[in-house]
Amino acid sequence: MSSDENNVEDKPNLATEEYWNDTYNVELNNFKNFGDTGAEWFGHTIGQKMIKCIQSHCKISLEDPILDVGCGNALLLIQLAKLGFTNLYGIDYSAPAIKLANSIVEDQKIEHITLKEFNFLTDDVKSLSTFALVLDKGTYDVISMNDENNEKRNIYKKNIINLLQQKGKLLIISCNWTQLELNEQFNDSFQIIHIIPTPSFQFGGAVGNTLSATLYEKL
């Protein structure tokens, strides 16, 4: 077996529930032993930009329902709760992630956050009610892995549409899809409300962004 084949086998598969369970079990132990709440996916700066976008462009009240799909440790929801939002929900298919999130919420005495273990592709989204805003920070990226026939992406988009209220918003952050690619996948059901500036790079005379960050509104 070649070294390249070995490297492929050694790479973690982020598309598996096992990977995320292992990851969040480590973070759960770190929180229990050291009080470490874990990392913010894509970093703290992106989380702050998302919050600024919500406050400036979403036109929602503090009471409107907000759902974080793939909430992980729920740090984004906790920040929103501290700003006065009172109708916050988080789902994740990783049981250790939800256990960690609940532990942090309880430790920080945060109110108005409901967390649930939930598989967004296989569980019935009708059990979740509807939302004025859905947040996605990397979950669509994970869902897109090993999805050559677009089956998982189609389920994701259908479920997002069903979850959103009339004129509901989707704020999605991606490191795997360019802005153009995201628009091609969502423009039949959504319109762009705002694009969050993200760090750029230049390679071979072309300029690109390390992340795509877009606020969409359901048509």
In short:
By secondary structure, this protein is α/β, with parallel strands linked by helices. Helix content is 40%, strand content 24%.
Could you please describe the fold and organization of this structure?
With 219 residues, the protein is α/β, with parallel strands linked by helices. Helices cover 40% and strands 24% of the residues. It has a 7-stranded mixed β-sheet with strand order 3-2-1-4-5-9-6, sandwiched between helices. Strands 7-8 form a two-stranded antiparallel sheet. Helix 5 links the parallel strand 2 and strand 3.
Shape estimate: globular
Category from helices, strands and their pairing: alpha/beta
Compute the CA-based radius of gyration.
18 Å
Across the major sheet, the strand order is: 3-2-1-4-5-9-6
> How does the major sheet shape up?
7 strands, mixed
Overall number of strands: 9
Give start-end ranges of low-pLDDT stretches.
Answer: 1-8
> What is the percent of helical residues?
40-55%
Round the mean pLDDT to the nearest integer and report it.
91
InterPro entries: Efm4/METTL10, Methyltranfer_dom, SAM-dependent_MTases_sf
Enzyme class: transferase
Domain Methyltransferase: 64-192
GO molecular function: protein-lysine N-methyltransferase activity
Topology at a glance:
Elements lengths: L2 H8 L6 H18 L9 H14 L8 E4 L5 H8 L5 E5 L2 H13 L5 E5 L13 E7 L1 H6 L6 H13 E11 L4 H8 L3 E6 L4 E4 L2 E4 L2 E7 L1
Subcellular location: Cytoplasm
Enzyme class: transferase
InterPro entries: Efm4/METTL10, Methyltranfer_dom, SAM-dependent_MTases_sf
